[in-house]
Each structure stands twice: as structure tokens, then as C-alpha cells.
Amino acid sequence: MSAADLPVHLRIPLGEGVRFGPGKAELLTRIRETGSVSAAAVAMGMSYRRAWSLVAEANKAFRAPLVELSRGGEGGGGARLTKEGEAVLASYRALESLLLTEGAAYIAAIRDRADMSGRK
């Protein structure tokens, strides 16, 4: 299930207006899968510049970088998640799962009370 399919969007404030949420989690997942920030951006339909900006923001927001970058050259550059990146992503995914399982009844109760008709 992708972040877009989830009934809630979990965003964790990290300070100074920076949050860790579904976008950064998906980007880290795609970087892990592809070994490339550029390929991850393409897979998400995101601009290359935006992906690099999110990686830089995430790397700065944590005590240790989440993504390790290698410069291009003959074989091209690459990217991989660091141990810190793997740990943050695993914790985020576990919290998402917990929210969706343990919190499902609360999510349903809130939605049952919502006016979903689009009236203003």
C-alpha cells in the first residue's frame, strides 16, 4: 500500500517547519529500491530538483544523514540509505502500521462524523 492509499497522512514535526511524512518516506523507499535520487524522483513523478531538496532537508533535520550520495563519474553517481535512514524509515512505517491497525476504529469514528458532501 502506498502513502496515497492510506486513509490518513502521518506527518511528524521535526522543528523549524520541517516535517517527516509520506512524501519523504516514499522518496526514501524509492531511493532504496533504485539506488538513485533521480530515478526515485522519476518513479514518483517528482522533479529532480524537488527530490534533491527533500533529501537535503531530511539529511539536515536528523543527527546523522539519512541518504548517502556518491558523485557521478564513469559509472554515474548513486544514493543509498544510511543505517540512520533505514532506522527512520522503519520506525515511520511501523508507526503508520500501528496507526492503521490500532487506530482504525478511531479513524472510522472521525470519518463517520464528517460531512463528506463537500458543503461549505
Automatic annotation (TrEMBL):
Domain HTH lysR-type: 26-86
Pfam family, any one: HTH_1
Matches recorded under InterPro entries: LysR_HTH_N, Molybdate_resp_trans_reg, WH-like_DNA-bd_sf, WH_DNA-bd_sf
Gene3D superfamilies (UniProt xref): Winged helix-like DNA-binding domain superfamily/Winged helix DNA-binding domain (1.10.10.10)
Protein name: Winged helix-turn-helix domain-containing protein
Organism: Rubellimicrobium aerolatum
